[in-house]
Amino acid sequence: MKNYFELFSRTKTKRVLSFDGGGVRAIAGIIFLKQLEVATGKSVFDLFDMFVGTSAGGMNALLIAINKMNASELHEFWSRDNILSSMSTSWENRTSFLHTRPKYDGIGKSELLKKYFSDASMGEAHKPVMTLSYDVENRRPALLSSIDTPGITAVSAANATSAAPIYYPTSEIEDGSWHIDGGIVSNNPALIGYVKATNYFKTNKIKVLSIGTGIDREKIDGPASRKWGALGWLRNDVIGIMLEQNMDHEISVDLMKDKYLRINSATEKVNKKLDDISEINLERIHLMGLEWWSEFGKPTIKFINS
User: Fold this and answer.
1) 181 is catalytic
2) Which ranges of the chain does DSSP label H, i.e. alpha helix?
């Protein structure tokens, strides 16, 4: 027992990279990571030992762990052409706010994911990776990982974690279960990554760099909200409110203290919608990522090197 704890205390610090969900706003974090790679001379794959993500962040985690992508390659994955192809739909007009089916049919997204992952399984990841989704039939969170569910394909895991209600259909994975976006459970999976890394690496020397996707701070009209039903709350982004709850972050700060660093800010002029790929919005997302680097760049380098 003594030898085990001596080994436990001497283990090198392990670094976890955690990605929030947030649709196209996830590009801001990639812009930040591109600057980190330039500053360190290392790819994100080499800088971190484990990857965890929710929704769009889950895709990023899988692309790094399975394809060994660097931040520039991730940025190419999130090109406007790729995003457009992932939002293709074979259904009739989806411009109505009250559409009765998901906004996109998910076929284009699946084809894009197959292009990048082919038939790779999560077990083929070069480093541990996890994605968070929600099993709707069993009504419980689902953590798909290279450790516990190695036979699940990367395409299935990516589809499951990013099946955002209203936007994409519920997604079936190889074990026959049906999943929706993990943001319903926790849009910031940093705490999950910390716990899993502690168990997997058998050490308490864990650091988590948590990459957000911006927080909508636009004021909600309190008195007016008293009269809102389902339509009123949907018009006022009730989904965004659920995704941007800050409790996971506050618990992470209390639990991990200086072993946790969060990269995030108010969205300011960035559109809160997950699928706004207008040139002006993509430019604003890019600028948000650069602003993050200006604010968090030096603390992040210190965090990684200490």
Assistant:
1) yes
2) 2-10, 27-40, 44-47, 56-67, 71-77, 80-86, 107-117, 154-161, 190-201, 222-225, 230-235, 238-243, 247-256, 279-305
Q: Is 135 assigned a catalytic role?
A: no
Domains of the chain: 14-305 (3.40.1090.10)
Q: Tell me, what's the pLDDT at 244?
A: 61
Q: What is the pLDDT of residues 110-135, one digit of tens each?
A: 999 999 999 999 999 999 999 999 99
Annotated active-site residue in 181, 186, 210, 216: 181
- Residue range 171-219, pLDDT digits in tens: 999 999 999 999 988 999 999 999 999 999 999 999 999 999 998 777 7
> If DSSP codes are grouped into helix, strand and coil, which group holds residue 80?
helix
Please tell me which residue in 18, 43, 55, 156 is annotated as part of the active site. Answer: 55
